[in-house]
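We now fix the convention by which a protein and its fold are recorded. The integers have meaning only within a learned vocabulary of local backbone shapes. The record below shows the convention in full.
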Amino acid sequence: MSVTAIEGTPLDGPVLVTGGSSGLGAAVVAAVVKRGGRAVVLDRQAPLSPVEGASLQDVQFVQVDLADPAAAQAAVEQAVAIAGPPSAVVTAAGTDACGKLDDVPFDAWLRVVQVNLVGTAAVVRAALPHLRATRGRVVTVASTLGIKAVSDATAYCASKFGVVGFTRALAAETAGEVGVTLLVPGGMTTHFFDDRTEQYKPGPDAVLNDPAHVAETILFALSQPARCELRELVVAVSTETSWP
């Protein structure tokens, strides 16, 4: 069964979602399933809870540490083997290591760049031959901190600025072959902030976006008619402090 978001072209193959076990990725998986589509989750941990209304065939899981490019490539190959060639890829996996550059252990700093940027590139690269064959689409997830730099976020900003540049170059490189959308989301109500110290958590009066709302914008991008592109989307609450 194909999936169609609002009006547009149905996605006849599975949607590969990195970081699909929680947060925005899980919201994307739920949105795909809600419309009768199939998703394959690429993540270190299995989904925390089953997606409402989904069968085992609707949502499948491939375990992978996206900090390892070779593992990321192998995970895409495994996903294709179990679910078929993807019609879309959504790179929602992300991590962070807050603090001053000389205070954050370098292995932790490097992991942020490996997961957020290198992992994104590795998954897209591995999926690209299939996406070219299916005239599929890619949505990469950057951040408002991929456009606006702030203190104590050198790893995160470096990785997300990199995702912005990578995606814009990819769109130019694959124009007419693969649809490419850059998503720039603001803060969302997910577990992303849970492991941070208090100084790096949103304040008690912070207003964050619902990841389900952001997921809807991704499905809208994925379902555009052939050759109609949503090149870049900024999605945030109206009071987002990191935008503009």
